[in-house]
Design brief:
single chain, mainly alpha, 16 helices
């Protein structure tokens, strides 16, 4: 059986963490934590290790099984399948929300005169093809995109960090309660979706005795990349200017001036955020399709087509809908936190109980 490498697995983690940042968690943090949003992210990185360790605990149990088969083995076929179906429904909400965010970004910042339907269909076709492949092919593609993303991130940081104005960070830690609230908002959007990694059995990874260490390394790497972006936004734009933009992470890229490079460098660098979202959706659909295949004895491509159609229809409904977007921004952190924490703790307790009985 062909296995994926630790680097390929780590690149999946990198993209899952970064995906919800642009247009979602960053915007929420700017309004909640103001100029202290970077502190919220810093606290979020530290506290986020707790749910990450719980995911790793589940990941290390029954190394030959993915999360769906683990749930069936732990809870029995009936309860295990109910749990799996519920997680599928929740994952579809995450995928649809972030796909709607992607379409909104492209339509608002790049293709304002292009019909939303055309943008939706174009990106869904781009998503559909890699989802028809196995996890080995998806993981290899993730690693290639990871190298491209790191290159773009480095160029962005080099061009932005030299332009920081320290005065824009003052007063520091002024909104204490809001900073704490922002911390948990960041964790809900950028750490808790990592439950998706459990769709990959640990034994599917080559040299998996180093996988736990690898997970932690890529966790830190991805979060630091987001922390730097937050610092640049506040340090360059200031909080009063940052909250005026729908996508301030795009606006700061316009401040980059590297000798000899195109004036449209900002648009090229923004590709890094689009890659993050696309990879998240692909991994999410892989999770959903493989779980559904347990219950429905149909070809995976048929299930995938149905899900892509549903996501596209819902996206057309929510894109540029101010009321729905506001509602999602306010309620999504609560929904993600309650759902993922409940299922994670439930599964962890059952694993612990099962191990105790075996002893």
């Amino acid at each position: 059986m062909k296995k994926i490498t630790n680097l390929e697995f780590g690149s999946i983690i990198y993209f899952i963490i970064r995906a919800y940042f642009v247009g979602v968690s960053l915007n929420a943090l700017l309004f909640i934590s103001k100029q202290d949003n970077w502190i919220s992210i810093l606290f979020g990185i530290i506290i986020g290790i707790i749910p990450l360790l719980l995911y790793i605990y589940i990941f290390n149990y029954e190394k030959d099984l993915d999360i769906n088969k683990k749930n069936i083995k732990l809870f029995g076929k009936t309860i295990g399948n109910i749990l799996n179906i519920t997680i599928v429904f929740f994952t579809l909400i995450l995928i649809t929300t972030i796909f709607g965010n992607l379409v909104t970004i492209i339509h608002g910042d790049y293709l304002s005169k292009t019909p939303v339907l055309f943008i939706t269909i174009t990106f869904m076709i781009a998503i559909f093809y890699p989802c028809t492949k196995d996890i080995n092919s998806i993981a290899r593609s993730c690693l290639i995109f990871f190298y491209a993303s790191i290159f773009l991130v480095l160029i962005s940081n080099i061009g932005l960090l030299v332009q920081l104005d320290v005065n824009n960070f003052k007063p520091i830690f002024f909104y204490k309660l809001d900073t704490i609230k922002g911390t948990f908002t960041y964790i809900s959007f950028n750490t808790l979706p990592l439950y998706l990694i459990n769709i990959i059995p640990k034994n599917k990874i080559n040299n998996n005795n180093k996988t736990t260490k690898n997970i932690l390394i890529f966790y830190v790497l991805a979060n630091i990349s987001l922390l730097v972006v937050s610092i640049c936004i506040i340090g360059i734009l200031g909080i009063k200017m940052a909250i005026l933009y729908q996508h301030p992470e795009f606006q700061i890229l316009k401040h980059i001036a590297i000798i000899g490079l195109s004036s449209r460098l900002d648009s090229i660098l923004f590709i890094q955020w689009i890659i993050d979202i696309l990879i998240f959706i692909i991994i999410g659909l892989y999770y959903v399709v493989n779980t559904t295949h347990i219950f429905i004895n149909e070809k995976k491509n048929i299930c995938l087509s149905i899900y892509c159609f549903i996501i596209s229809i819902v996206t057309l409904f929510i894109t540029n809908n101010i009321f729905l977007n506001t509602l999602i921004a306010k309620k999504m952190p609560f929904i993600i936190t309650i759902t993922t924490i409940f299922f994670t703790i439930l599964i962890c307790l059952k694993i612990k109980h099962t191990k105790k009985i075996k002893r």
